[in-house]
Amino acid sequence: MLHTLPELAYAMDALQPHISRETLEYHYGKHHQAYVTNLNALIKDTEFADESLENIIKKSTGAIFNNAAQVWNHNFYWQSLTPGGGGVATGALGDAISAQWGSFEKFKQEFTQSCISNFGSGWTWLLKRFDGTLAIANTSNAATPLIGVDKPLLTCDVWEHAYYIDYRNQRPAYMAAYWSLVNWDFVAANFAEA
């Protein structure tokens, strides 16, 4: 099974001014594509050659896991964003966020702080835990909640390649822009399925 770079649901310049076309050309077109290319090379003629991306992640280690997980994490990240996104979560998701953190603004502050303080390269996630509660979690490098029991609802990529072109080393500025792009419909759909 040949893994491919999925098409974005929006044009390369659709996230401007928050995330530039140049960032997408490098982040999606170069970094994400490299993980796909590397994964295909690594699994050729192995037990993983005909496995789904999710099964590879759950069964592999080392370089195969790192590339497969980065493909999946990036796929999820691009879906977490949408042109004209942002605002607040509503409906059952909004109610769950308010119940967990007291208010949407408090959740937003805590998620932002987790992103900013996530040391080095990694990801910050909003998760629906196995007991139905919500949680914010940081993962490092290619680590992904897909291998655990918690259901990922939303992610933010805090590797420098996600924001360096637009914001240099100013992760807080990237986070301020991120909230203008969050695809709450995608997050709500994940919440409903969990």
Automatic annotation (TrEMBL):
InterPro entries from the UniProt entry: Mn/Fe_SOD, Mn/Fe_SOD_BS, Mn/Fe_SOD_C, Mn/Fe_SOD_N, Mn/Fe_SOD_N_sf, SOD_C_sf
Top-rank lineage group of the source organism: Bacteria
Every Manganese/iron superoxide dismutase C-terminal domain range: 90-189
Any one GO cellular component localisation term in the record: cytoplasm
GO MF annotation: an example: superoxide dismutase activity
Catalytic activity from the UniProt record: 2 superoxide + 2 H(+) = H2O2 + O2
Residue numbers binding Mn(2+): H27, H74, D157, H161
Domain Manganese/iron superoxide dismutase N-terminal span(s) in chain numbering: 3-81
Pfam families in UniProt: Sod_Fe_C, Sod_Fe_N
EC number(s) from the headed UniProt entry: 1.15.1.1
Keywords: Iron, Metal-binding, Oxidoreductase
Protein role: Destroys radicals which are normally produced within the cells and which are toxic to biological systems.
Family statement drawn from the similarity comment of this UniProt entry: Belongs to the iron/manganese superoxide dismutase family.
Protein name per its UniProtKB record: Superoxide dismutase
Organism: Undibacterium pigrum
